[in-house]
Design brief:
It contains 8 helices and 8 strands; from the N terminus they run E-H-E-H-E-H-E-H-E-H-E-H-E-E-H-H. It is of the alpha/beta class.
C-alpha cells in the first residue's frame, strides 16, 4: 500500500485518480479548494485517508495547504493534478497580484513541491498544448501582451514540464515525471473530448503506485497513455529550467531545496 496526495481531487481527473487509487487499496489524501468542496468529496470518497483545504490562487493558502499536507503525510507519491483552463476572455489577477492561470498552474505546484517533504515519486500534470507554449521571460504573466487565454494556458503547461524536468534533475533520488492525460471528458475538456476519465487518470496512477515495470523508476520524462513523448524543446533547456526556478523562488520567497 502506498500513501498518495492528489491535488485538485474533488472533481474530474483528480477525483478519478483518487477513486482508482483508493479502490486499489492505497491510502489517499484529497485536496479541495474550499470547505464546501471538501464536504462534497467526503461524501463521494468516505474511504479517503484525509482531506486538506486550500485555494491555489492564494500564496498564503498554498503555504497553509503545504503545512496541512505535511502533517498528514509523509507521502510515497504526490500528484500535482490541480489546474485551470484557458477559456477565459479577460486576464484575471489574484489577490497576490499574479495572473491567475500562471499562479494556479505553475506557482502553486512549485510552492507545494518546495515546502512539502520530498516524496519518492512526483507527477506533474501538463497538456499536449505545452507544444504550443512559448517562454516569454519579459512577460510571463501577460502584463504587456494582448491577452490570449489559450496561449497563457499553453505557456503554463510548458512551464509545468520545465518544472518537472528541473526537479527531476535536482532531486535524483525522487522519480519525477510530467503527464499529459489526454483530451478528457471533464468540465474543462468538454463533451467533445476523445478520452474517458479512466484513461485520463491511468498514467499518473501507474507512475504513482505501479510496480509492474522497470520503466516506473525512470525519471525526467513526459508521458501520455504510458508512452514517452518528446516535449517542447524549451522544456529540456537546463538554463531555461534554472531561470524558471529562480523566477518562482523570487515570486514565492521560497527556494527549491537541494
Amino acid at each position: 500500500m502506498s500513501s498518495v496526495f492528489v491535488t485538485g481531487s474533488t472533481q474530474g481527473i483528480g477525483l478519478e485518480t483518487a477513486t482508482t487509487l483508493i479502490a486499489a487499496g492505497h491510502q489517499v489524501v484529497l485536496h479541495a479548494r474550499d470547505e464546501a468542496r471538501a464536504a462534497d468529496a467526503h461524501v463521494l470518497l468516505p474511504e479517503a485517508a484525509g482531506i486538506v483545504v486550500g485555494d491555489l490562487a492564494s500564496l498564503a493558502q498554498t503555504r497553509e495547504l503545504a503545512a496541512a499536507a505535511a502533517r498528514v503525510g509523509p507521502f510515497d507519491a504526490v500528484i500535482h493534478n490541480a489546474g485551470v483552463g484557458g477559456g477565459v476572455p479577460e486576464r484575471a489577477v489574484t489577490a497576490d497580484g499574479l495572473e491567475r492561470i500562471f499562479q494556479i498552474n505553475v506557482v502553486a505546484p512549485y510552492l507545494l513541491t518546495a515546502l512539502m517533504p520530498r516524496p519518492s515519486r512526483l507527477i506533474y500534470l501538463t497538456s499536449g498544448l505545452e507544444e504550443a507554449g512559448r517562454v516569454e521571460w519579459d512577460d510571463l504573466q501577460f502584463d504587456y501582451r494582448s491577452w490570449d487565454g489559450m496561449q497563457a494556458y499553453s505557456d503554463s503547461k510548458l512551464y509545468d514540464v520545465m518544472l518537472a524536468f528541473a526537479v527531476a534533475r535536482r532531486w535524483p533520488k525522487t522519480v519525477v515525471n510530467a503527464v499529459d492525460p489526454g483530451w478528457v471528458k471533464t468540465r474543462m475538456g468538454g463533451p467533445a473530448a476523445t478520452d474517458e476519465l479512466p484513461q485520463g487518470a491511468d498514467t499518473q496512477v501507474w507512475l504513482a503506485v505501479g510496480t509492474d515495470s522497470d520503466e516506473i523508476g525512470i525519471s525526467g520524462r513526459y508521458l501520455k497513455h504510458r508512452r514517452v513523448l518528446t516535449a517542447n524543446p524549451e522544456a529540456r533547456d537546463e538554463a531555461q529550467q534554472e531561470k524558471l526556478l529562480a523566477v518562482l523562488a523570487e515570486i514565492t520567497g521560497v527556494r527549491l531545496p537541494d
